Amino acid sequence: MGKKQSNQVKEITPMEVDFPQWYTDVISKTEMVDYSPVKGFMVIRPYGYAIWELIQKAYDKRFKETGHENMYFPLLIPESLLKKEAEHVEGFAPEVAWVTHGGDKELGERLAVRPTSETIICSMYSKWLNSYRQLPFLYNQWCNVVRWEKTTRPFLRTSEFLWQEGHTLHETAEEAQAETMQMLGIYREIAETCLAMPMVVGQKSEKEKFAGADATYTMEALMHDGQALQSGTSHNLGQHFTKAFDITYLDRNNEQSYPYHTSWGVSTRLIGGIIMVHGDDNGLVLPPMIAPIQVVVIPVAQHKEGVLDKAWEIGKILEKEYRVKVDDSDGYSPGWKFNQWEMKGVPIRLEIGPRDIENGQCVLARRDTGEKIQVSLEDVLKAVGDLLKEIQSNLYDKALKMREEKTSTAENTDEFKKNLKENPGFIKAMWCGERSCEDEIKEDTGASIRCIPFDDEQEVLYEGKCVCCGKPAKKMAYFARAY
Amino acid sequence: MGKKQSNQVKEITPMEVDFPQWYTDVISKTEMVDYSPVKGFMVIRPYGYAIWELIQKAYDKRFKETGHENMYFPLLIPESLLKKEAEHVEGFAPEVAWVTHGGDKELGERLAVRPTSETIICSMYSKWLNSYRQLPFLYNQWCNVVRWEKTTRPFLRTSEFLWQEGHTLHETAEEAQAETMQMLGIYREIAETCLAMPMVVGQKSEKEKFAGADATYTMEALMHDGQALQSGTSHNLGQHFTKAFDITYLDRNNEQSYPYHTSWGVSTRLIGGIIMVHGDDNGLVLPPMIAPIQVVVIPVAQHKEGVLDKAWEIGKILEKEYRVKVDDSDGYSPGWKFNQWEMKGVPIRLEIGPRDIENGQCVLARRDTGEKIQVSLEDVLKAVGDLLKEIQSNLYDKALKMREEKTSTAENTDEFKKNLKENPGFIKAMWCGERSCEDEIKEDTGASIRCIPFDDEQEVLYEGKCVCCGKPAKKMAYFARAY
């Protein structure tokens, strides 16, 4: 720790100066993540992993409440299986890491380190499914996947990441669509309530959809630098895979049918989103619901009699309901500790010194606003609880306001470019639906269609003329540069 | 499910007839696990995975209570890193799956799919550790590992399995030894209290220890067929890896020192142990603490008015404290359901029919003894709680009794062989400590030294003469054939 004192605190590059460097500073100085000896692979350190555990727990609970069960499928997938669904293999082949040798022997067939598990899961579903009475299949797995990426950034795009992938089968197309939408809804619900990240949701364009899907739905968040982050996707896979893998069952009419299929995933990428939505020039700002430490108790003048005892006493009271750390470490000033835990994004800092004890009170300092309030020691448990709730909701509101400020509309490509330059963020614009216009915008501006909102959030802008070609357009889409 | 009715229930090969076939029948008919398209790799199905989740939760809680934090390290390890510790690479090289291509490109250096993570973790520890003030490092990871195995059996030995691996660093040899023993103690505690599996603990011989360890400690359970299962190991790695990876820190005397190192792991193998310790000819028998379903409520004459309502009412009451399933499925007789859930090892079956309702009672049937008791509906929550505790402790007692019955002593190799033939199990025998005797016994009988018990469980048998060579022996060891 000695070494850290000199180089860790308050040496974060300001966002405005260099946003990518700010991000790199934050993730490394807070010890969330580190680079590994293998290029493009990250080590998730305890402070980062603890956030992932809390995210997992929140999602897993909702998956189970909606009837899904967890399983585990093999890491390695035979090349022949991966190739069974044509669009799918085309989409993933360039990113596959291949195992060619087991021990000293060359394998007869190459094995892909799973980039996603549709193919191996379908091969098992085809074995398990016989009758409509078994449907729906509602399964999920938490695992690691590997996608060989050229340029990587911890949490956001790495050659290995942790995620969950749900894989379901249904009797009807309608049920599969309902499942696809239900899971998108759960993704959004947890992202907004626990991660305090407001989401724009909608459908992906044909160009941007998952390799092998009928339709892909997405939730997209906006980062401080005005770039979007695809934060979770839910795919209606129709019968692409069930036909390719010959998954059939005896239906209610006693005939062999192919079931309808969905898959959906969120990953450790969400942690990158939390950092870039809530963070500031002092470091991380963590929403209380996923903060590994919700309250840090810092004794002031801790050598004075009774201070440490009182700090620990308060810690014990709070830890019955919250995740608490008492920082009684020696050799660091309270000021240094304040900075340290501010950088780590702990929602509440509780300060307690001799004068506070005399007055039967302590100070709560909010990470999100910097505000300090005095509370009576008798009320501390309730005060902390109330404040955590307030911080949680304030972070959501702040993020929503930020997104709204960075969301504009554009009538034509000139305006589109101007907006992207002057106020980068989401641009709402009409789109004719042609791939050529989508490609042209991407090439000219770097912005892609993030999603086409659902009907209840659709708007007709500028008399419905496509932002690119000016022809009649039926849908408004969210465009942005993206991670 | 239609298809399953005909082939699933009551077609388990009796243990006495063919124990390996019994095991295969149980794991497949209960849908815990399935074979995958890649030889040696298993699919863990929901009923098996739910057990793993409960085991994980129990261990993870204890790891955290003892100050350990979780992290995540990369799946792939460069060949050069794996080769840095000589004994280690020699031990693992024959079992490594190698990634040679990423996308279309051949890699400059082969990457090992982790068989265990000492090497990559040490490479990071060497970067992170500077000062004694940072010690101890107390970290763990939950992940998948791959070891290319020639002969495999689901849960017991598979080319991929799920496990946790703890990796700690300490200032002194004493602290590392204390950690090694603490973790062995936690392994045993959870195995005995939650999994109801009595363990023999002790040290591995030089021959059987982990590749690169100073000392390996193990817990070993005895299966119904008299074979031992190594169920968890804790290694004192000394300074082998910290020297090989040049992990140094400034110690209390302001000098550069190498820390002391431990690692420890338990895996999905434990599930195989649960099956083979507690199971019987009717299928699984699950200890309540790790049973995904602790109570199954089965309505009798469910078409009669009020029966289903009452079954659900009881289910709701019980599910506040226990894991409960109400099996109201149509088209199956209660008798068929009884068999089904008996096979799945559910600790308590609760039967409720019209006459029971009239009498304000229900029937609880124990999976472990077959005993049935009537309880008043008013007392059902407490009765179920008491009974689950009793079943948990009865299963442990039964398993201990079984092990004791299958544990013998042998004075010489003739007796050793006779015991193994007539009553296969643990054989306690004196051992001179020579590798030649250990090898000879292994070759002659297939039995290996499972562990050398600690001093408090040591005995002097047959005047301390080695079971093999007859020379003076200092230690008694547990021998057995093993999975």
TrEMBL record, chains A, B:
A Pfam entry, by short name: HGTP_anticodon
Gene Ontology BP annotations: prolyl-tRNA aminoacylation
UniProt keywords, alphabetically: Aminoacyl-tRNA synthetase, ATP-binding, Cytoplasm, Ligase, Nucleotide-binding, Protein biosynthesis
Location(s), subcellular: Cytoplasm
GO molecular function annotations of the record: ATP binding; catalytic activity, acting on a protein; proline-tRNA ligase activity; transferase activity
EC number: 6.1.1.15
Domain Aminoacyl-transfer RNA synthetases class-II family profile: 45-287
Source domain of life: Bacteria
GO CC annotations on file: aminoacyl-tRNA synthetase multienzyme complex; cytoplasm
Transmembrane annotation, as ranges: none
Catalysed reactions listed for this entry: tRNA(Pro) + L-proline + ATP = L-prolyl-tRNA(Pro) + AMP + diphosphate
Keyword Secreted: no
Family to which this protein belongs: Belongs to the class-II aminoacyl-tRNA synthetase family. ProS type 3 subfamily.
Entry note about domains: Consists of three domains: the N-terminal catalytic domain, the anticodon-binding domain and the C-terminal extension.
HAMAP family for this protein: Pro_tRNA_synth_type3
Subunit structure: Homodimer.
Described purpose of this protein according to its UniProt entry: Catalyzes the attachment of proline to tRNA(Pro) in a two-step reaction: proline is first activated by ATP to form Pro-AMP and then transferred to the acceptor end of tRNA(Pro).
PANTHER family: BIFUNCTIONAL GLUTAMATE_PROLINE--TRNA LIGASE (PTHR43382:SF2), PROLYL-TRNA SYNTHETASE (PTHR43382)
Official protein name in the record: Proline--tRNA ligase
Species this protein is from: Acetobacterium paludosum
Gene: proS
